[in-house]
Structures are given as C-alpha cells and as structure tokens.
C-alpha cells in the first residue's frame, strides 16, 4: 500500500498554496506556522525543552507548491531567527524552483529573534517588525508550478501570498513519501540555501516527497518522535542516529540498543511493513573513539572546533563512543532483520568517512559544508534508492 501524498492546501487572502514537508500547521498571529513535531506531543518535551521546541518549529525541508502564470510572486511572512546562547543564528534564504531548477532566491528577513539559553530552560522573543515581504521577480511568464523552499534554520509564519497573476495551490504529487529522522547533520542549517539540505538533495534526485525530521542536537530516540512517525503515512522511513546521543552523553553502551529497539517498535505500530533504513553517523574526525560530552574550542582565526570531551577511560566503564554506536546500530538491524523485519543498515562512513577527509574537511570538525551536504545527498540516493540500493526507488510502488 502506498502513502497518501503529503501536504495540505492553505487558503490565504491573496491566494492558496500547497504546503509540504511539515507535520502540522499551528496558528501564529494572523497566519500559520509549519512545525515538524505535532503540538499534541509538546507537553512531553523535557522541562528544559525550549531548544527542542525551537528546532522542531524551523522549516528544514518545508516547501510551498503553487501555480501561477505571473512573473512576480510575493510572500508575506514573519521570520524568527534563533540564537542559542551567544552563537549567531542561521542565515538561510528562500529558494524558488521551477521543474527542479532554481530561478530565484531571497534573503530571510529578521522579523523576530528568539533567544534560547544553552540549557534550553528559557526562551525570549524580541520583535523588530510584525512581518516582511519576500519577493521573487522576473519569473518566466506562463503556466508553471513554482516550489518555494523555506529557510531551513528559521521559524517561518506564513501570513499571505500575492502575485501579478492569480496564485493557487498546486495539485498533489504522485511521489512516494519518505520520512527521515536525524540530527543537525540531517537538519543542515549551515548552508545558505535550503535546497542544500541533504535529504532535499536525495529527494530531488530520486523523485520522493520528503518529510525531513532532522533536528539539530535533538535526535535522542524520543518516544514522541517515534509516535509522530508512526502516525504519518510513508512509503519509506530512514533514521540516522548516534551523534547527538554520544555528544550529549545521554545514553551508554547498556541503554542505547534497548532504546533504539523501543523507538523502532513504536514506529512499527503505524508502519508494520514499511521499509526502514537505519543509518549510523558519519565520521567525527578525532572524536570517533572518545566518549562525550561534546566540547567547543574557539580558535584564534574566529572558527570553532567541536569535539568529544569525555575521559577515554570511561569507555571501559560503559561510556558510548561514536564508533561503538555504529556497531550497535548494525547489531539492531541484524537482530530485527533476522526476525523477518523489513529493515536495512547503512554505515554512515559510506556517506562520509576517513577517505573523504582530504577533499572534504569539516569546517568545525563536525558539520559538513554545502558541497559536502550535496555529496552526502547524492551518496544516500545511490546507496539507498539506487537500483542496487537498500530500498530501490523502483520498488516503492509508484
């Protein structure tokens, strides 16, 4: 059985759009906000859950699809940029595409700033203006479907849409639905363009309708995320897990595997037969064999270096390393696959490993840049959805 095409039609004063890649639209001061964890689960966030709430409200992979004959398209939006502690917020852009080709981009305005403490226990909003206009000019005239990708590291409230010709929601796609869950390396806030998000790259290559549940710093095998996935129609699911758990030292060698089984068990309540790809983490250079917690070094040139800062002696006492987490993820797939489950393992080192270091050094020793994210997207498309992949695109029933 194939999933119902994701997305819903949003009617605004100036026209309508189809919005995709989210799990819920919540009311937001005269408009709506796409979020990637449904609000019914927010009460289950930890007491210091403001970081998770902010990250789940950003728009990675969220896009609008609309039809128009005009040359100009205008969105009225309210963009909230997030600052965690003293770190500057992500500065991403809106991207307009036609038939998969980028025809225009626009800066994400800074309408509000959400300041979140490092501990995640407090969040305060500073309003600079109520809303802004994001304009795409010089679009090709004539009938066309325009896809607008929202900035992936920003909270976006949609207030209205307009153009120099009528704007209406595009029809549903006939593409398989792919749900992906992962860490900041799936969220991909670092590149300027939301089309550089690697799950978006993979989806474009393979013709999939992606819902990207990549949450920076928040891929912790939370039961409510598993429940949200279970409740969402999908033709294929992937989970890429390890680095946040090691970096936060939130689990150890004793607890990681049972927690991963429990997460998958909850997903299976809604997807008993859906193919699942379980992927381990990419290389963390210099930190793969050391336990967390993570640390940050501020370099003289203004750069930063992220690293694991735990005591190597703790590994013998049960502390989890990223290298260990890969073996544990593969173990879970072996156990479940042997019992007949439709599940496959992808080694994260196939997406980025030691051989890639000379060509693709990581700017902060942890997160890729735009070029490497694109390469990871291409590799994931090949290893997972290629004809010889773990879940060939041709097997998804469309």
TrEMBL record:
<protein>
    <submittedName>
        <fullName>SGNH/GDSL hydrolase family protein</fullName>
    </submittedName>
</protein>
<feature type="domain" description="SGNH hydrolase-type esterase">
    <location>
        <begin position="182"/>
        <end position="374"/>
    </location>
</feature>
<dbReference type="InterPro" id="IPR036514">
    <property type="entry name" value="SGNH_hydro_sf"/>
</dbReference>
<dbReference type="InterPro" id="IPR013830">
    <property type="entry name" value="SGNH_hydro"/>
</dbReference>
<dbReference type="GO" id="GO:0016787">
    <property type="term" value="F:hydrolase activity"/>
</dbReference>
<dbReference type="Pfam" id="PF13472">
    <property type="entry name" value="Lipase_GDSL_2"/>
</dbReference>
<keyword id="KW-0378">Hydrolase</keyword>
